[in-house]
Amino acid sequence: MSRVADIAAALAGYDPKALSVDGVQAFLASLVEPTVLREREYVPLFEALGRVLAEDVVSPFSVPPHDNSAMDGFAFDGAVLDSPASEIISLRVAGTALAGAAWRGALSQGDALKIMTGAVMPAGFDTVVPQEFCTVEGDTVRFPANALRRGDNRRFAGEDLMQGRPALLQGERLTPAGLGLLASLGQAEVSVFRRLRVAYFSTGDEILSLGEPPREGAVYDSNRYTVFGLLTRLGCEVVDLGMVRDDPAALAAALSEAARQADAIITSGGVSVGEADHTRAVMRQLGDMAFWRVAMRPGRPMAVGLVPKAPGNANAGAAVLFGLPGNPVAVMVTFLAFVRPALLRLMGCNASSAAPPPLLRARSAVSIRKKPGRTEYQRGRVTCTPGALPEVRIAGNQGSGVLSSMVEGNGLVVLHHAQGSVAPGDEVDVMMFDGVV
Ligand SMILES: Nc1nc2c(c(=O)[nH]1)N[C@H]1C(S)=C(S)[C@@H](COP(=O)(O)OP(=O)(O)OC[C@H]3O[C@@H](n4cnc5c(N)ncnc54)[C@H](O)[C@@H]3O)O[C@H]1N2
Ligand code: MOO
Questions:
Q1: N or C end of the chain, less CB within 10 A?
Q2: What is the pTM assigned to this prediction?
Q3: Which ligand is nearest to the CA of 325?
Q4: In this predicted model, what pLDDT tens digit does every residue of 3-15 receive, in sequence order?
Q5: What's phi and psi for 342, nearest 5 deg?
Q6: What does the UniProt record say this protein does (predicted)?
Q7: Of 5, 52, 20, 40, whose CA–CA distance to 345 is shortest?
Q8: Mean pLDDT across the chain, nearest whole number?
């Protein structure tokens, strides 16, 4: 009764020793259905950025509520433009309409009304001439007939949001624009799914925690901070379980605690075949796991599975475990390619909000060696020149432990599974990560 084995059995061509990137994505799409987060809460708009909408938001009224002017100028009945008597239109100015209050005075055809941007269009008037085109003498305004067409500079009621129609959909992640949209509906609070809780820890005896003195053969734990940043950017609630030494009891305790507290778990290190690694054994003992060698670079060894929240109680559910390779760039690449879309689904995002960042088409400035049969992600720096396709250069040393080139780059050149080497000038796909991770 292994869910992981069932999913694997249903995947055509599943080979844990040479799984393609597409194969991993298909596996995760089955393992992580967007069903985990059912709990919802109301939060004020100022706390809602990045949160996922738990229900559709239907406009209680239209925005803007009235036809209004898009310019400071003079509103008039645009019929006079249909067959103007002379090159200069001359109208009597009946008064001024300010934004925020409707004009209540009488108007007749042949009148104009001085109007401010956002002010309600008076009934029967459908056109606004910007004041830059006008000369005013006493109560007469004049402007060239060819300066505009009937209907210009009028904004329609409901052109932004129509009363009774959905303004935002369940499963959308709230962006700054989304917050503004909700505010324009007068809504001070919004119903969102509770935040996804993700626990993480680093493993390995050669890894030092910050504050520890340097030691020969040891390196500081960078993954803990990178993973913290990746999860925080995503809007997750993080459960930091620190560094866990390569000891079965310590690893089992950390993994159980992570599963108890969180919806998902990210570990780094210990998923390859090293002799001293107990991580795989402990994962296998506590969870329903798959261990893969993925046909990609970086990010070859990887573990994925489910760890029960309360062993022996199936109703308590399970946390999804992502056992990422230890190399710092492999952590980031596997996070972007696999973990991030899966976490977005767990957060309750709909298909479009959970989609990976769109790929940018760029011209490679350099040659890139690549073997068909695996997907490679190379750190690159994309630059744009007006009128030309964006250009990408490979950023620094591409070793999977080299974080400095990840800092230097702004995107990952994605060299697809079947693709071969790239010559200078060839077009390539780039997954931009600036602002995403
Ligand atoms: N015989 C084989 N050896 C290796 C294989 C393989 O298939 N066969 N795969 C290589 C690849 S690719 C990777 S990636 C690594 C992954 O190994 P692990 O996931 O078991 O990770 P570790 O061995 O624990 O660490 C790898 C590397 O990353 C550094 N590291 C680990 N944790 C951190 C951290 N928190 N902060 C900074 N750096 C970290 C660690 O020092 C190692 O240098 O295996 C290859 N070997
Ligand atoms: O592919 Mo490993 O995952 O970093 O070198």
A1: N
A2: 0.92
A3: 1
A4: 999 999 999 999 9
A5: -70, -40
A6: Catalyzes the insertion of molybdate into adenylated molybdopterin with the concomitant release of AMP.
A7: 52
A8: 95
